[in-house]
Amino acid sequence: MENTASLPLFIAGPMLRRTTQHEVTLWSVLTQKPDKGTVSVYQGSQLLASMPLSAGHWFRIGERAWVVLHHLRPAHGFPVDVPLSYDMEVERQRLADTQPHLLYDNEDTPEFCIPAKATHIAHGSCRHPHHRCEDALVTLDAQLATTPTTQWPNLLVMSGDQIYADDVATPMLQRIRRLIAVLGLKNEYFEAAPIVDCRALDTHPDSYVQRGKLLPSQRAEKGGRLERLFGQPLPIFTSKTVSNHLISFAEHVAMYLLVWAPVSWALTDGPHLQPPTQLTDSQRERYQQETLALNAFRSGLTGVQRLFAHLSTYMIFDDHDITDDWNITVGWEQAAYFNPFSRRIIGNGLMAYWLCQGWGNAPDNFSQEFLTTACQSAYQPIDVCDLDTQTETHQAMVEECLRFEHWHYTVPTTPHLVVLDTRTRRWRSESRMNKPSGLMDWEALMDFQHDLLRHDSAVIVSAAPMFGVKFIEVLQRVATWLGAPTVVDAENWMAHPGSANTLLSIFRHQRTPTNYVILSGDVHYSFAYDIRIRFRTNSPRLWQITASGFKNRFPEPLLTLCEWCDRVLFSPLSPLNWLTKRKRMHIERRDPDTPGPKRLVNASGVGLVELNDDGSPHSVSLLKADGTRVSFPEKTNT
């Protein structure tokens, strides 16, 4: 058993989450029960709001770990457009004492600013720890370190794949297993599974590199053309990298702690970090490459934690936060949710998402009933809560998360910020079990339209681009026709006629905003489009701005080939455009200020968008991980 006294107070955080004129939300993970201390917000030396540490909502995830959310809401709100600061004092120790690395030069406490208007937004997605490219969030932190607080981005939007639960490097999985032991993270028991509980993964021969053998083997869609051709339907977990797929709730939470702060890495150093004995020579070589990539990732985490401590951060899931191709078809859903073990794995990922991402996005979205179920499912010592009760309460929370339908949220900024859930409220195909579902169903799209009413402009966050690269969408359509939509991730807004036509109708509606900025990620390359509705005198204006990934890239030269085909086949005068669902939309691609004819930027980076007062983009750029910047200037008619 680990000595609690030897553990640092903070494992992760404090992370600045939902922050508006009326609220400041802080998310942290502590190694002590949050019963002594205070959380305070200041303007200079003036105290604006304070609450006891114990007054926050907390969730115990293990014997030596608590997730704590502090939601400060003073009666008269907070001042805007001025530097503010916050502190967390525990047993007379302030953040400057417990976490001095969180502070920029000349800071005594972390500073932040609540803007009157959100006109400067940083955004992106897809942060893959062992990918060979650099982490762009480290670069953004370095930029903030030399910029006055009032000139920082107003907020950071992370539009999916904050973790890769389905693609975990073996040395990362070793650290996950070790962190579970160090913090005594919650154990859980499985039904109809090849393992009894989470702890069995420590010694199971298939725990490393061979988890595909542990995952449910029930097949998903039936009747696809490729299946009839080759005789093999697709599995439930379709990722090509399921060999280390996360399974338990504790594993998912440990992954978050390892990608958001450096402390967990120091706690998991040791002689156990050796290639597992069952690895082949090629797997051992890959292990060494992954170790080098993870060491580079680790070196930037101090800066990333500092960035999260200063910049209000909003998140939404995409598929890899849970598993690749999550809810892609009706057949996939039926296979996944009718199998108790796969249902638990998906539920564990969603439960960890709520705890580490969703909770801080919009605390008021979660009812007292939801929080009560969560509290009952938290870690309890075995002498306090018996095995049957622990299993029952954990499953109850999994079911609560699986049926929850309010992961989407809005932020009362100007322009209005609308963050979409494109994963759990799908428009399911009625024609074929293996046809891709729409990203949002009718009811969800009507909720979306309602969120847009009475606003002159809006910033919409959609994990997948609403308007993507047409040639790549054609490839996805061909794969769907062959009955294998998961082969090329055939998930785009135009793949389902119901959701596509409803979405385009919303943009054409007279009572919705005239200026839409759509921020997306997912695709591992960056681009910008200017969009208008054809044959409309007073057409609303739309801008599709995609930045992906923070730490990921699309394979080259495949992207170059796809872009060339798109340029040739879908040029502005091409008749093929009239065969697409977007034929009533005039889409003009912005050229980045880079050498050559490319319009897709294949580099890890953070998107930066500055908006005019009417919500239209003043500037669109990509801060690349190497510190250079690519701009997407508006085309001018000469």
TrEMBL record:
Q: Which InterPro entries match?
A: Metallo-depent_PP-like, PhoD-like_sf
Superkingdom of origin organism: Bacteria
Gene3D superfamilies documented for this protein:
PhoD-like phosphatase
Know the name of this protein?
Answer: PhoD-like phosphatase metallophosphatase domain-containing protein
Q: Record the organism.
A: Salinivibrio sharmensis
